[in-house]
Amino acid sequence: MNLGNVPGSFLKIMTKILILGGNSNKNKDWVDSLAGLLYTKKIMGMEIVGYHYSHWNRGDVNINFNKELEHISRIVNKEKDYFVVAKSAGAILCLNGIFDKLLKPKACIFMGVAINWAKENKFWKNEWANNYSVPTVYLQNSDDPAIEFDNLKKMLLDYNSKNYEIKIWHERGHKYEDFLGVSNVVYNFIERI
């Protein structure tokens, strides 16, 4: 195989990018759209996995954290290196999985982190964020009702989180539909890791 001018850092052989959406079944389209765009960028050796929660098909209201983490861990933990891109409740699910040592991503990109939703639904545990140290980029809209940018920034400091960047995102509310912008952040971050 001729690799031509592909930089060595792009050769992340057998690496997965796992995409986790928010709680609502409307996030199926979000997951599929982002997965499709990331797939078209085709960095060699990257497998894009757009994950659909089982409750979306059953019509249940909320993610079953235990069930989904068990299934997700079977998908990714065979891999040496994988990355997680998660929106909203997907970021909360990932934090839970990392804390419980079910997920061991090399790095994460979280957007629209749904802290308020998790607290309202009694899913949130402070220890998930306490001393969190997985390399992570947070993209958060300034006015996101899930948690505003300034409040997320303060929370990360209060919980002594490490190895993260937090960026104010340019959309409004809880929308993170600039898929091209998100995909650029994903690949630029992976390239640095």
Describe the structure concisely for a colleague.
With 193 residues, this protein is of the alpha/beta class.
Question: Describe it for me?
Answer:
- This protein has about 190 residues and is of the alpha/beta class.
- The protein has a single domain (about 10-190), classed as 3-Layer(aba) Sandwich (Rossmann fold).
- Helix content is about 40%, strand content about 20%.
- It has helices spanning about 25-40, 55-60, 65-75, 90-100, 115-120, 150-160, 180-190, and strands at about 15-20, 45-50, 80-85, 105-110, 135-140, 165-170.
- Strands 2-1-3-4-5-6 form a 6-stranded parallel β-sheet, sandwiched between helices.
- Helix 6 (about 150-160) links the parallel strand 5 (about 135-140) and strand 6 (about 165-170).
- It starts with 14 loop residues before the first strand and ends with a helix.
Which word captures the global form?
globular
- N-to-C SSE string, H for helix and E for strand: EHEHHEHEHEHEH
Number of domains: 1
The residue ranges in which pLDDT falls below 50 over 5 or more consecutive positions are 1-13
- What's the overall average pLDDT, rounded? 89
CATH class: Alpha Beta
Query: What fold name goes in the CATH topology slot?
Result: Rossmann fold
- Count every helix, treating DSSP H or I runs of 4 or more residues as helices: 7
The main sheet comes to:
6 strands, parallel
Topology overview:
Blueprint: E1 15-20, H1 27-41, E2 46-51, H2 54-58, H3 65-76, E3 82-87, H4 89-99, E4 107-111, H5 115-120, E5 136-141, H6 149-158, E6 164-169, H7 179-192
Parallel strand pairs: 1-2, 1-3, 3-4, 4-5, 5-6
Helix pairs in contact: 1-7, 3-4
